[in-house]
Design a protein that fits this description.
- About 5% of the residues lie in helices and about 45% in strands.
- It has about 525 residues and is mainly beta.
- It has three domains: about 180 residues, Sandwich (Jelly Rolls); about 110 residues, Elongation Factor Tu (Ef-tu), domain 3, CATH 2.40.30; about 180 residues, Sandwich (Jelly Rolls).
- The longest helix is centred in the C-terminal third of the chain and has 8 residues.
C-alpha cells in the first residue's frame, strides 16, 4: 500500500539512489529521463577524468553500418570505467574539434551495450551519410555522469549547466596558440595525465631571474563586469613549485590585477600572490599520480577602458609563496587540461583541440504518466541529498535541487533556495503566490546536504541536516504540477551551481510527520 499501512506506511513512491547505485534506475517508482546534446567528462571510480577517449579498432565504414548493428571499439585501459550500459555515446572522426556530428565528418551515434577494460560495444542509432572509413576515432560519453571524488568516492549524479572552454589545444601547450613567458622550452612527453592517457606537456624554465610564469594565453573580454574562471592541471617535474595564474590586463599595458596560485607539490599547500589577489577565488583539487587541478575565478572591472583582457599562465614558480629568484634553467613542471570559461566557478573539464568547445547542459526529469503515477497533488513529502564541490562557499544565485512544477514558476513545489540565500528553503507556489519555508541552518558547502520538505494545505515544513522542523501555513497547494526536474527548476532556468551532485531523491505521497522529516535529514 502506498498511502498508509502495509509494507509502505509512509507512502514512498519514488526512490532514486544515484550515489549508492550509480544508475538512473529507480529503486521504487519511475526512472528519470536524461539528455545532453554533447559529450561530457567526469571523474570515474579510479579518480581519472573520463568521458572522451581515443578509440582504435579495425576499419569502420559508418555509412554502411545498419541501424541496430553492434560495433566494438578498442579503448585504453580504464578509460570507460563508470560509463553506463544503455547510455548514449558518439564515435566521431572529429576534424573540427566541435564534438558535433556534421555532414562532412565520419560518425556513428549509439547506445552502450557492454564494456570491458579494453573494449566497448555499442548499438548504432544513427550514422553519417559521408562515405569513407577510418581506424582512429574519438569516443564521447553523452549519458548521465555518476561523478566521484579523486579518491574514488561516488558523489552522485553530476548536474551542470552548459559551458564553453575558450582555450584551444587544451592538452598541448606546445601548440603555436600558446606563447612563452619566462620559460625556455615546452615539449610533449610520455607521462600519465589525469585522464589516464600517456601524453602531457613539460615546461622548462629559463636560466636566470624571472617570475616563474611559464606559458600565457590571451583572451579578449567581450563585456565589462565579466565573470571568468581559468583552470589547469599541474604536476611536479623536477621542481616542487608550480603555479597557475590569472590576470586582468589592459592591452599594451600589462597586468592590472593578478592572482598567482602558487603550489608546493610535496604538501599540496596553495598560497596566493599578486596585485589585488584578494579579488580572486582560488581552489585546488588533488588527483591521482601527483596531479592538482587549480582553478582561479574573478570578475573583470566594470569599465573595459581599464581591463580588456584575461590572461592564463601555467607553469613554474621559484618558490611556494610567489617570490621571484634565479632559475638554474633545468627546473620542470608538467601541465595538462587548461580551461577558460565564462562564469564564477569552474565546471568539469572540456578537452579541446583546434577550436573552442561547448558542453551542453545536463537535463534530468520525470514527466507525463510517469510523473502522475508517483506524485500526489494534494499532499506529499520530498527529500534530497546533494552537495557542492570545488570550493563553493556562497550562493549568489538560485540553488535548484528538485522541483515539481507545470514548467513555470507560477505553480510549483520545490527544495532549493533563492539567489543570494545561504539557507535552503521549501517553496510552494499557487498562481504565482509564493509560500517560502526557510530552514534554520545553512547549506554545507564542503560536504553532504540533506533536506526534506512537506506540503499540505495549511501546513508546509522543512528540515535540513538534522535540525528542527520549520513550518508555514499556505492557503492553497498547486494542483497542476506535471513534471519533476532534478538539479534544475525548469527548462530555461540555471542548473544546480558549482558542479552540483544529487546523491538521492525520495518522494512520499503523504505529508510526513515532523519527526520523520527530521529523521530523514539526520
Amino acid at each position: 500500500m502506498l498511502n498508509g499501512g502495509g509494507l509502505n506506511p509512509d507512502g514512498l513512491s519514488l526512490d532514486l539512489q544515484f550515489a549508492a547505485d550509480k544508475t538512473l534506475t529507480a529503486r521504487r517508482g519511475p526512472t528519470p529521463t536524461f539528455s545532453r546534446a554533447s559529450s561530457g567528462t567526469f571523474v570515474n571510480a579510479n579518480g581519472l577524468i573520463v568521458g572522451k577517449t581515443a578509440g582504435t579498432t579495425s576499419s569502420i565504414t559508418p555509412n554502411t553500418q545498419a541501424i541496430g548493428s553492434q560495433v566494438t571499439v578498442t579503448v585504453a585501459s580504464g578509460s570507460v570505467v563508470g560509463w553506463v550500459v544503455g547510455q548514449a555515446i558518439s564515435l566521431i572522426v572529429d576534424t573540427d574539434g566541435q564534438d558535433d556530428p556534421d555532414a562532412t565528418e565520419l560518425w556513428l551515434l549509439g547506445n552502450i551495450v557492454s564494456t570491458t577494460d579494453t573494449t566497448l560495444v555499442f548499438s548504432v542509432t544513427s550514422r553519417t551519410t559521408q562515405a569513407g572509413s577510418a581506424t582512429s576515432w574519438t569516443l564521447g560519453y553523452r549519458g548521465p555522469r555518476f561523478d566521484h571524488t579523486s579518491a574514488g568516492v561516488c558523489r552522485g549524479l553530476l548536474i551542470e549547466e552548459g559551458r564553453t572552454n575558450q582555450i584551444t589545444f587544451s592538452e598541448d601547450l606546445t601548440d603555436g596558440s600558446w606563447s612563452f613567458f619566462a620559460t625556455a622550452s615546452a615539449a610533449n612527453i610520455t607521462s600519465t595525465n589525469p585522464s589516464g592517457g600517456t601524453t602531457t606537456s613539460r615546461l622548462t624554465a629559463n636560466s636566470g631571474t624571472g617570475t616563474g610564469r611559464a606559458r600565457v594565453k590571451l583572451l579578449n573580454l567581450p563585456s565589462a563586469s565579466y565573470a571568468a574562471t581559468v583552470s589547469c592541471f599541474v604536476k611536479a617535474g623536477n621542481s616542487d613549485f608550480g603555479l597557475v595564474s590569472m590576470a586582468f590586463n589592459k592591452a599594451g599595458v600589462g597586468g592590472i590585477r593578478v592572482c598567482n596560485a602558487n603550489i608546493v607539490f610535496s604538501t599540496g599547500v596553495i598560497t596566493k600572490s599578486g596585485t589585488s589577489n584578494a579579488d580572486f577565488t582560488v581552489t585546488s583539487t588533488a588527483f591521482p599520480d601527483g596531479w592538482y587541478r587549480i582553478t582561479i575565478s574573478a570578475t573583470s572591472n566594470a569599465s573595459l577602458t581599464v581591463e580588456d583582457q584575461v590572461v592564463l599562465y601555467a607553469g613554474l614558480a621559484f618558490n611556494g609563496t610567489g617570490g621571484s629568484g634565479t632559475f638554474a634553467g633545468t627546473e620542470t613542471v608538467l601541465a595538462w587540461g587548461a580551461q577558460f570559461e565564462a562564469g564564477s566557478f569552474a565546471t568539469s573539464y572540456i578537452p579541446t583541440t583546434t577550436g573552442t568547445l561547448a558542453r551542453s547542459a545536463d537535463v534530468c526529469s520525470i514527466t507525463g504518466s510517469d510523473f502522475n503515477n508517483f506524485y500526489n497533488q494534494s499532499e506529499g513529502s520530498l527529500f534530497a541529498a546533494y552537495s557542492f564541490v570545488s570550493g563553493y562557499t556562497n550562493v549568489g544565485r538560485s540553488v535548484p535541487v528538485a522541483q515539481a512544477s507545470n514548467n513555470t514558476f507560477n505553480e510549483l513545489v520545490r527544495i532549493g533556495s533563492a539567489a543570494s540565500a545561504t539557507s535552503p528553503s521549501f517553496d510552494t507556489t499557487v498562481g504565482g503566490l509564493l509560500t517560502r519555508t526557510t530552514a534554520l541552518n545553512n547549506f554545507n558547502f564542503s560536504g553532504i546536504n540533506k533536506t526534506s520538505g512537506a506540503y499540505i494545505v495549511g501546513n508546509n515544513a522543512i528540515s535540513h541536516n538534522g535540525n528542527a522542523v520549520v513550518t508555514s501555513s499556505p492557503a492553497a497547494i498547486t494542483s497542476s504540477c506535471n513534471r519533476l526536474d532534478i538539479g534544475k527548476f525548469h527548462p530555461g532556468s540555471p542548473n544546480l551551481p558549482h558542479n552540483g551532485h544529487i546523491a538521492a531523491i525520495r518522494y512520499y505521497k503523504k505529508r510526513l510527520p515532523n519527526s520523520k522529516l527530521q529523521a530523514l535529514t539526520a
